[in-house]
Structures
1.
Amino acid sequence: MELKKYAVRDAWGLLEVVQIENEITLQFGNHTAQSGWNPARPEQLAFGYYQALCVGLVLHPEPLRLNLYGLGGGVLARYLLEYTEISVHVLDLRPILAEIARQYFGLNIEHPRLTLHFADMSASDELTAIPPADIIWIDLFDEQGMVPIPTRSLAVLAKQLDDTGVLCINIWRNALDEVTDITRALAHFFDETPLTIHVPDRYNTVLCYRKTPWTAADLMRIHGRVGDFTAAIQATLREALHWVQPLANKRAR
């Protein structure tokens, strides 16, 4: 049974909070869940792509700072604050999401390790307010699908990472034109061959980029880092690591 808990319209359209059985979801005026969680099981991530993004945590040797582009219902930010010691900077376009995340998705918007920014991702000058990070997560969708990110904005994001930094982006594989555009743009700033994580039974794929190429040794190390995290994160990683695809063989030039 579907229960509509809240609806509001801001300058960019309709936002709805809907409960289906035990899961609370955020929708942008359609039937696609943009965020979701079960308040009775906060240690479990509702969506496979959430789990896939978490693989980025073990792709960095010591993640302490994470920049998240796309707040949604605040599920990922809440999860990081509750089950890691990572400091989180979030940027989103819609300020009203902060109160929705607090009221319906359990995000403590006054947490000392959380900083919220509200600005247009396309305005590269706005992005300069976001500090350097070890990991970047991009989860930017609206009611139409993937939100385009200008190359000039990706250039700013690339400067937020050093050579060990990792950028993980959630994409929809069926949006071929958008995927082609974003991967070509990212190849200007990172190694052209990302680590690929396919979410089972979904069109979501998480692509993980670094400025230096991924190697087989990198994949060996990530399993040894799982134990550095809390039990909740370990459980998430043990499932998601099965979805990591073998490294692509690069053609000789």
2.
Amino acid sequence: MRTPSVFVSSAVVLAAMSPLAPAGFTGFSVVRGQGNPNGNVVWEIRANFNSTGLSAGQQWVFLNAYNWTTLGGSLSALHNDGLSSWDASYTDAANSSTDSFVTATGTYGSGTALDPNFNPATGSSIPALAGWYDGTPGVNNLVDSNSMSFMVAQIVRSPTASLFVGSLELTYKATGTAVGIFGNGTFVIPGIPAPGAVALAGMAGLTGRRRR
């Protein structure tokens, strides 16, 4: 019987297989977050970028994520904010490593707003076609210029949760511009594969694109 660590390794590889786009957004990845709270596992869904298309001194700015879609498995997210809410404003330093949330700022706390499709805004799963966006107009949510990645969600799960395959779309722009660029991609959150999940994970790893 294969160990969970083998499943984790294979899923991370599959999530990283999305082909590179010619500029900007290159796809999503799922990486281990900080800590191992109460024996659970913290996963970060990250949007990754390259610098192609940026002029000197420019950075990418995250604007919004939308059209969350479950392709396979169950998200089975755990919350620790007292409300089981996906709103990042209910996550603070005290529960930052034990709570699941979505973010347009790259971290927990205020600044993220949920769109109308995010209904309900609580529970262990994210509703179909849900999205979230920058709730602080005028404040640039910059993609880190060193890692060239931006966290869009933190998912805390039991180590026995099933492998999850999903897709998401996003909008971003370059600093000093007003033109949004649209991207979409798939991702895999490691877990125990259910029948057919490995095939779905493979398909997820081979898709992803960006468009203006």
3.
Amino acid sequence: MKICLVSLAVVTLVSVACRRPAPKIVVPELFRVRFQTSQGDFIVEALHAWAPHGVDRFHELIRVRYFDQGRFFRVVKGFVAQFGVHRDFNVHETWRQFFIVDDPRQQKNIRGTLSFAQSGVNTRATEIFINLVDNPMLDNQGFVPFARVVEGMDVVDRLYAGYGEMRPEGKDIDPGRVEEEANEYLVPRFPKLDYIKTARFIP
């Protein structure tokens, strides 16, 4: 009888422990991320005060290693370098629907800043671009900088841009297929695209 009671107690404790909520993640006011790429490393500094919702999502994506092996699929000289489509199109298909609420713009889209791509109000999800130059026209279009490159901007400048703008303005990369097929489409057809090896927090 005692053995049964002990067993029941253990089962009860395990059951309670399994129901405990996961510890809440506290996003730092400022943190840095090292991007190791096929062209070398660059370091990004994210500032919560710039765009809280955007920084929270960026922190989440880094935690789950979302960007690893992702391609810089849109690199336009004198404009932007864009990434943020997961290597697996099934994973990207799920995440691209997890929109975040817009942040009011606190900073300008100047060279070296990072902003989420979006297609309207409250449509930011996973895709991010780095401003390669000052882009004042983006300031009034809802693009909100949330971070900046603090080291290695020369690496960003070297990202392969030979495929140019995506269709229909360009002639090579089909944005619809990027979204729907990810690396399965990009890697064999556009082998010169640079990519992210890893993106990790710097302690």
4.
Amino acid sequence: MRFICSISAFLISVTSVIAAVIPVDTLWNRANHNYSAGNYREAAQLYEQILNENGESAEIYFNLGNACFKQNLLGPAHLNYERARRLDPTNPDILHNLDFVKALQIDKIDEIQDVFITTWLDSVMNVFSGTTWSTVFFTLIILSLTLLFFFIFSQTSRIRKLSFAGFCLLVFLSVTSFYLGYRQRNHVLNRSEAIIYSAEVVVKSTPNSSSSDLFIIHEGLKVRIIEKQGNYYRIILDDEKSQGWIPRESAEII
């Protein structure tokens, strides 16, 4: 009897898993079919449904960005490409589409270039995902402890020297991998950037609609949020000079 109950419980659990997976596959196929058929609005709605029900995915964000771009929705397209890049920062298709959509923006902002060491660290950081960096870190720790064991218990001078040198090298690499993983985690969790959604936004001097106008920005531009107050964001552009206040509803956080 106990065996039969166990089998029944197993079958129920398997059935639940299958029931959970099938709708996702169905939605995915329907979304892709609508996209291929040119029904971009319907495809975008299905991609958004998948994201809402199953969490973030670089592939879904990328496809959603494509569906938005096909509808000439520059802001949503840029937003979803940025979200895709946040999860898969080295994907060449995502980077290509990002460059393409940025080239279509009305606002051309001269970006402040990062110093060489920052650019180099970012390029190394993006070699692996945060999860992979964690795996690398723990693997290096285990290897370094193994070499430490050989250093302590070996009776051969040559082996002791080599194991100690290897131990020092692996400790350095493990600390480096931990830092890169931590840096990438902060990058992924960072929610200080946003994409302008409105066709045109007047940037104000204070968080008040009656305050003086500073300048105008347009749909698709990426801005950095440096302060939040009421229904307004205080934003700064990539030139690190132009800043002001915009209504929250005019931008969507990446």
